[in-house]
Amino acid sequence: MPTPEFILDLRRHIGSASLWLSGASLLVVREGSIGPEVLLCRRADDGEWSAISGIVEPGENPAETVVREAWEEACVEVEVDRMLWLDAMDEVTFPNGDRCRFLDHGFRGRLVGGEPGIGDGEISDVGWFPAGRLPAPRQARLAAQVRICLDDPRDVVLGLERR
């Protein structure tokens, strides 16, 4: 589901003005032959590799969001281990002019079922990558998320820009 209905309803009232939305991201980790591997998705809209992510629906817990998004986007069943970060992201302007700013809730999880594949069309590719060799194009944000995930901090990290 590309844009949730509740956002389309809001857009009818406010146009492309900036929205403050809750988002959620998940890094699925497994032990590979040469160390930890992360499951990444290549976004269909911009070609960037990223963690599984999505918009939190009204009344939904962000941990539930990532479980839902993992199934919808990457055809996998996951279990959330823990929350790792909370980050107020910079404003994003989409090609249609809509502007959003996300409060991203970041989680680490593990695969419990399914085979990674392309689900709802929001991604164009999915795969496991060694944590030390992330694919290009690579965002600094993704590298920070993977570092936090592997560091396994005792407390939730507030803001990725400090990493």
Automatic annotation (TrEMBL):
The keyword Hydrolase applies. Residues 19-155 form the Nudix hydrolase domain. It holds the Pfam family NUDIX. It comes from the Bacteria. Its cofactor is Mg(2+). Keywords: Hydrolase. The keyword Hydrolase applies. PROSITE patterns: NUDIX. This is NUDIX domain-containing protein. It comes from Arachnia rubra. The lineage of its organism: Bacteria, Bacillati, Actinomycetota, Actinomycetes, Propionibacteriales.
